[in-house]
Amino acid sequence: MEIFGIPHQACLGQLMLGLVNGAFYAMLSLGLAVIFGLLDVVNFAHGALYMVGAFAAWILLDKWGVNYWWALILAPLIVGLLGVLIEKLMLKRLYGLDPLYGLLLTFGLSLILEGAFRREYGVSGQSYNVPELLSGATDLGFMVLPNYRAWVVFASLTVCLATWFLIERTRLGAYLRAGTENAKLVQAFGVNVPLMVTLTYAAGAALAGLAGVLAAPVIQVNPLMGSNLIIVVFAVVVIGGMGSILGSVITGLGLGVIEGLTRVFYPEASNVVVFVIMAIVLVLRPAGLFGKEA
After folding, report:
1. Distance between CA atoms of residues 155 and 237, nearest Å
2. CATH number at residue 94
């Protein structure tokens, strides 16, 4: 069976690959949307935190024999603690100023982190084996689905939906949103807003770290993995709408699939299709597909 003259296996394979990439886009853009939507910080260090999460998983395994399942817990905690330090020591001083200052600071931090890991580990990349429980593939009849890639999609969707529910449908999420709108009023009700802000940034950083752990068995763990991805992720956030959590998730998955299918039908455009879509969206709807118009 062929689709526009192309074997359906190739289409389905690229569709699955696009869905996996979309899952990473969704996870990373989710963390960016949380930090920007609640703290008004354009966190350019997000790609570097994603890289740190992958390296944390690799180092835990290489130095201490900590397996993948524990790394899924420990690596995001490590990256989250790094996020606490960044927020407390640096970003805290920039609140209330133009968001450009936060962007420049986090861009500098990303260069520092990337440079430190390049100096220590080089750029050749480190391999991280797929956990035994998720090795192999499942024959679905119309295609062979690698078990680990299916796990990545499932885990990413679960985390994204849980984060959206926490922020949009719970009392804690209401406090977070209210604290960013009127901190003094929320503090009058006994809520520790500075601590809440710190934990919000740490949670966004931890989401990037978790995405890094999920990516480690799929790609080579190297210091450039974050910088190679962050520009696309920013485009995803802009298309979905800056600060829109659900928009980031839906757009990330959708653009991953579109990018995958573009590799089948027009490979030359696969590297730019996301940016073409971003340009079209910005012309027609500057606030993004799910963003709120000013």
Report:
1. 20
2. 1.10.3470
pLDDT digits (tens, 9 = 90+) for 47-76: 999 999 999 999 999 999 999 999 999 999
Q: Between helices 227-240 and 273-284, what is the axis angle to 10°?
A: 30
Estimate the crossing angle of helix 68-89 against helix 193-215, to 10 degrees: 140
Angle among Cα 288, 279, 160 to the nearest 5 degrees reads 40
Q: Which residues contact 162 (CB under 8 A, 6 or more apart)?
A: none
Supply the range of the domain harboring residue 250.
2-124+133-284
Q: Tell me how far apart the 2 most distant CA atoms of the chain are, in Å.
A: 65
CB 46 within 8 A of CB 233: yes
Q: Is the pTM of this model over 0.85?
A: yes
User: What is the number of domains present in the chain?
Assistant: 1
DSSP letter for 288, please.
-
- Is the residue at 177 inside a domain? yes
Tell me if residue 223 falls in helix, strand or coil.
coil
pLDDT digits 0-9 by tens, 190-201: 888 889 889 999
